[in-house]
Amino acid sequence: MGNLKRLKSELKRLSSPERAKVSRWFFKTGDGEYGAGDKFIGVNNPGMRKIAKQFAETSLLDLEKLLASGIHEERQTALFILVRQFERGDIKTRRAVYDFYLKNTRNINNWDLVDLSAYKIIGEYLADKDRSVLYQLAKSKNLWERRIAMISTLAFIRQRQFSDTLKIAEILLHDEHDLIHKAAGWMLREAGKRDQAVLEKFLRKHHKTMPRTMLRYAIEKFSEDKRKGYLTR
Predict the structure, then answer these.
(1) Which is nearest to 125 in space by CA: 171, 86, 158, 164?
(2) Calpha distance 94→141 (Å, rounded)
(3) Distance (Å, rounded) from C-alpha 28 to C-alpha 125?
(4) Taken in order 19, 66, 47, 95, is the CA torsion positive or negative?
(5) HSE of 178, CA atoms in CB hemisphere, 13 A
(6) What's this model's pTM, rounded to 2 decimal places?
(7) With bands split at pLDDT 50, 70 and 90, how would you rate the model's confidence at 232?
(8) Per-residue pLDDT averaged across 4-14, rounded?
(9) Rounded to whole angstroms, how far apart are CA atoms 119 and 41?
(10) What is the three-state SS of the chain?
(11) What gap in Å lies between CA 109 and CA 214, rounded to an integer?
(12) How confident is the model at residue 100 (pLDDT cuts 50, 70, 90)?
């Protein structure tokens, strides 16, 4: 049995119809919802991480096939493997994983897939490089590419670099999708946890017009009085 078939077999062995049913509801797979048509077999994160470790040397060619799968857990396991290869790789490997990721964004197509991988691959790779690709992604028509742009900046936030987070949040300020409001608000909150003055400067400029969800996420760690002050506008 080939490497990819063995990996899929291991995932199937850990599957749970009950968990799959919950996941289909949780990740909004109904008609017209953001995850419409996504298939779940019901494998939890620890199970996928274990398999990712077991198949850590899977080639990019096989990972591309896995990422093209209609089964969510197969795509997620591919991303766990990619993150692992990036974190343990040399400069050449990191570049290859980064390029591969950007080539396959169409299949990194739910919020959990973006959130577990974007900052760990795209953000970390760009930490000491030109970041213009994030601004291109932020203006994409693809929902998930816009979320990748926003979430990738977590790597910079952790280095106390806030400029790109603020600029991309401004680009996405009037995005039509709630999942982008949540992502931007989350990253603003993360910046504010490290430097509240930076966040408050952004809020003074935008709190009256930014989406309510984005604002609520951004001010979540503020005192109750301060939260009320921003929400009463």
Answers:
(1) 86
(2) 27
(3) 31
(4) negative
(5) 5
(6) 0.96
(7) confident
(8) 97
(9) 26
(10) CCHHHHHHHHHHHCCCHHHHHHHHHHCCCCCCCCCCCCECCCCCHHHHHHHHHHCCCCCHHHHHHHHCCCEHHHHHHHHHHHHHHHHHCCHHHHHHHHHHHHHCHHHCCCHHHHHHHHHHHHHHHHHHCCCHHHHHHHCCCCHHHHHHHHHHCHHHHCCCCCHHHHHHHHHCCCCCCHHHHHHHHHHHHHHHHHCHHHHHHHHHHHCCCCCHHHHHHHCCCCCHHHHHHHHCC
(11) 21
(12) very high
Average pLDDT over residues 116-127: 98
Residue 229's CB is within 10 A of a number of other CB atoms, namely: 14
The amino acid present at 110, given as its one-letter code, is: N
Identify which has the larger pLDDT, 1 or 220: 220
Percent over 90 (pLDDT), the chain: 98
Q: Which two tokens stand for residue 98?
A: 């980064």
